[in-house]
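Form P-L/3: holo structure prediction, ligand iron/sulfur cluster.
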Amino acid sequence: MLIFRKPIEGIERPQMPADAVIVGGGPAGMACALRLSQLIDAHNVKNSDSQLSKENIYVLEKAREIGQHCLSGALLDPRSMRELLPGFEQEAPLDAEVGKEAVYFLTKKGKLKLPITPPPLRDHGNYVISLNRFVKWLGGKVEQTGITIFTGFAGSELLFDGDRVTGVRTDDKGVDKQGRPKSNFEPGYDLHAKVVILAEGPRGSLAKQLINKFDLAKDANPQTYGVGVKELWEVPSGRIAAGEVMYTLGWPLTSKEYGGAWIYGSKDNIVSLGFVIGLDYPDPRLDPQHVLQEFKKHPFVGKLLEGGKMIRYGAKAMPYGGWWAVPPVAGSGWMLVGDSAGFVNSARLKGIHLAIKSGMLAAEAAFEALSKGDTSAATLSEYQKKVERSWIKDELWKVRNMHQGFEHGLYAGMFHAALQFVTGGHGLHNRYPGKAGHEHMRKLAVLPPHGGSEEAHLLGPAKGDGKLTFDKLTDLYHSGTKHEEDQPAHLVIHDTNICEQRCVKEYGSPCQNFCPANVYEMLDDASTPNGKRISLNPSNCVHCKTCDIADPYQIITWVPPEGGGGPNYDGM
Ligand code: SF4
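OUTPUT (holo model):
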């Protein structure tokens, strides 16, 4: 029987008061902490008789080290960093300034360069970075301020008093596979905070609790996501210049799937390449890791990588839904920032600059609220207003209907995208409706070879040749993922009967395909009605959140494993 992770009940937990708790030490969380510190410093300089302290401001980060779980392409639009730390370019780890970019449409063997680069993909002036190294650097800045970063601590539950968020419970440590305390058991802390800022990245587990509890998304479009699967390569010199950026559309996806690839040249002959696929594809047998492997077989890509070596692998979801899918971002005792709120410009494939800006604005609202001694919904809603008055809204408003325009495939999507571009994001309607991605998944009975007429492609797992292409386990090895083995599964399946009795027949168990880390397996078991039993390898999990998003029955909940576990995205 599968035992799932949850906080142990009925035990005494250490209680800690806090002014502000920031959950998540990615770009949004670190920018928030840094801005809060700047505001407190500025106040203290002006008010020697009423000094404010940073002692009770905490950042919780589930990774063992700062930046270890951070993965992105990544290109940094420097706009928000210039506001946060003017002159940051002098000391930040920026690998190369973008000097050349191109967009290609791929067929199986050929490529067509678009005569002009669409404006959203013009990247001159942006920087190729490793988000992992960049966040490590930003985290170092936060540590210098005196704000405490608790690494290896995940937020496992929100604490409530009525409709007010009053704090965060951190994860219990030392719990065995059966859910029993081990000899090294340490209960999680209850951090009682005046304000909690959720900066957990895409599909945050606490953000999901909050959004569901208060039905926050009721007036928003359903959030939609893509999953980016990435490899880092070291290639022979001269293949690609540092700062050269390429995007591709088309093959190996069909016109029914939304997505494309990126190739970024970094310093020291390092190439970041990856494929982002909208998690609203129809065929449950599609495997995003396989798509990336197939992409590398294209002569254009194969030639670039030939003689090179894959050195890192990882995957992460990103929110695609745009402005109309952003829920209210502030309430009584809480705020949502960065990817947790949905601040990503999917047309530009960028969110780091928005994460940083939203973190800064939340810090300003938190500072004002803490100074007044009032962190009620009315006061914290100032953050919502700040977002709406800022360039976050200006940028996202122009692409507010972008992803919904692709609901009926690539060609209709390109028509809508062009129309939206010339109408400032309006297109055919001010607000295009949207559907949650999993609702697009179709049952096997209506797909080839059982039914339907579409061409079936890229079905099932990749095999890999071990040089250019890799199977999932080989790729996974390069993610550096480690977890404490003796702990309950952190992928909570609310009803495994659905997996074994319905999903296996209706959808062919797509969890085995969409998980880029081989966590889900359907094992032969003659005692079950369809001869299959679900089995989990949670210690493989790279924390991408795809299963929580893409499962067609919505019965999987990702909860944080014991703090410190997860991938090691060194240099990613
Ligand atoms: Fe991603 Fe879920 Fe697989 Fe973990 S189990 S790697 S979150 S799809």
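COMMENT: Residues 454 and 460 are 17 Å apart (CA to CA).
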